[in-house]
Amino acid sequence: MSTDSITWPQAETAAHPFVDKLHEWVTTVDHKRLGILYMVYAMTFLLIAGIEAMIIRIQLIRPHNDFISPQVFNRLFTMHGTTMIFFVIMPFMFGFANYLIPLMIGARDMAFPRLNAFSFWMTAFGGLLLYFSLVGANGLYGAGNAPDVGWFAYAPLTSRTFSVGHSTDFWTLALLVSGFGSIGTAINIIATVFCMRCPGMTLAKMPLFAWLNLVMAGLAILAVSPLTAAQIMLLVDRYLGGHFFDTQAGGSAVIWMHFFWVFGHPEVYILVLPAFAFASEIIPVFSRKPIFGYPVMVGATVAIGFISMSVWAHHMFTVGMSAAANNFFVISTMAIAVPTGIKIFNWLATMWGGKIEFKTPMLFCVAFLFQFLIAGLTGVMQGAAPFDWHLGNSYFVVAHFHYVIVGGILFCLFGAFYYWFPKMSGKMYSETLGKLHFWLFFIGFHLTFDFMHIPGLLGMPRRIYTYEPGRGWDTWNLIVTIGVFFQAAGILVFLGNLLWSYSRGKAAGSDPWDAWTLEWSTPSPPPAYNFFVIPTVKSRRPLWDLKHPADPDWEFE
Amino acid sequence: MNATYIPLEQQPVTAQLPERGRVAMFALIAAEAAIFTIFVVAYIFYIGKSLTGPTPQDVLAAPILYSICLLSSSVTIHLAVKALRVGNVGIFSWWWFSTIALGVMFLYGTATEWHRLIYKEGLTISTNLFGTTYYSLVGLHGFHVVVGLLCLTLVLGFALTGRVKQEHAYRVDVLSLYWHFVDAVWVVVFTVVYIVGR
What we know:
heterodimer; A: mainly alpha; Cytochrome C Oxidase, Chain A; B: mainly alpha; Four Helix Bundle (Hemerythrin (Met), subunit A); 6 helices; globular
């Protein structure tokens, strides 16, 4: 047992020329650098897709607006959706998983560092390919344009007849390429969690973060692959004259929907499980209590993983499936609310009786709890097929899934950024700016997405580029658009905070939160090899044991 | 403070964790199996839905000999890995070469079948739904055989230049898992295309 503090001289004191630094970052196989690359990349696309959303909302601010043309509107909502799912949230989640899992399980890197770099660059070039469509999509025929078939690209809209030029091909190839990256990362996470844990860390002693990301990786393997298969079929149809989705030759447009949503619904859980992982780390630390019901949390996660594979067709109630199919998917959709509810109760029970500190990460996580609950409730509403027949394809659906993705996932992501920023940068962020960001974004979020439910209930359909006055939708759309500017202001404060704190913030030290997982035992930022000695753990909170030798956790677990 | 570790307990590594190559290969196989599942579902869903001929009943004949080639290559690769585990590189190379030869035989069988279908029966990928699903599913499997053969040939090259030794048995074993998977998929494809589909 080594008890000395080991101080390392700053190895990189000499200034490197920019080209050398760039070369180091481009060729890196270090899980922490790749994690940061993922996040920087996702942040860039967050800004791009956010601006797209703002343009969409400005167009809808009043009836008969002509800010943009219908064609541009179609391209914008397609690009906004595709970018946000595949090139913002997924890379953010993979970035955090990459950065934190080896640190949390006491490993020096992921299981396959080079596969890790390969996966990142596949994802990165996938995103570039999508946006290259703006230049190259019409091929030799003239100026390019972006895909305009919606993020789920329903057949037969994607056939050669209805989608001339190459915009749909860019969409397909971008998703195919980034899909390979996602599968690579998922394989890497699974191998890391199973094979790289430090001595003493049994599966039952892993931080919940690692558990949730393990289930996420399993889902990614089983869900992204069907998307890959469906994209190959679409390419066969478009390039080789195949008939998979060609209704004129006996093919089926509905089977594309099945294939897409077999991916699409587990995808929601691929995005939300890492968000749960953030909440499961942040809430205990700021409540000064261990997580409530660890085994139940793990069980609920695995249950979500299994059930989420069997709920996909609740996206398709309005297609006209058989009564048996409708019933099955209603019941499975209701069933998945149970383990999710268990998780919410566990987080609440963790906070119950705790000494809660409302620092910025905790504020975001508390908001997440309530917003995700509402998102889940509107989800259960639409999970009932008869109700969905009325609201399918309306703004109610748009409000629901933005409540999940913004109110649930993005809030947790912001919390995670503030929580781990001191570890990644070595600097403390500004708490004042952090709180300002929270309140701006919180107000903006509720203005936009609370009020978006109402035009949906009043019958406003999705994906329309303008609407008639006097249907009772006007005021609601105005409020919704005003909220967007609050959110944009919040994001700007967030970016300003990150940049300012990175250059001017005061040193954070290795453990600013008095936290309990292994990453806080390393210096901030951690060195390339993470741990000078590979640690040995005895409980789920190794740093608690260390700080409280008289009252260690492992006596009670 | 910035460069300070909180001291941690250290003990010699005693715990036995699974090998990462094996875990990763099983994960990859799960992903590949999901891709094949979608193609198999599409094939079954579209059986008998073609609006024009030719139909599977008219033109397909089960390639039993070539299927036996592919399936027996699972046995030869197993024998190869077994030989390498005890350090017998000569026997390993021989069985490894047999595996490649059997795989090439199988691909030759597919090639002649496709040649007959395209030039004699006039069935291409764009002829009808049967053509689309048949060439996609069998082609996807054939693509995996080609990738497997490339990897196997690479290892054979290493073996012939004396670079494969007993300590590499584990890596070769991981590669053989992939080859077993490719063979197992053929059992499913064969059943669906040549038995259920007709």
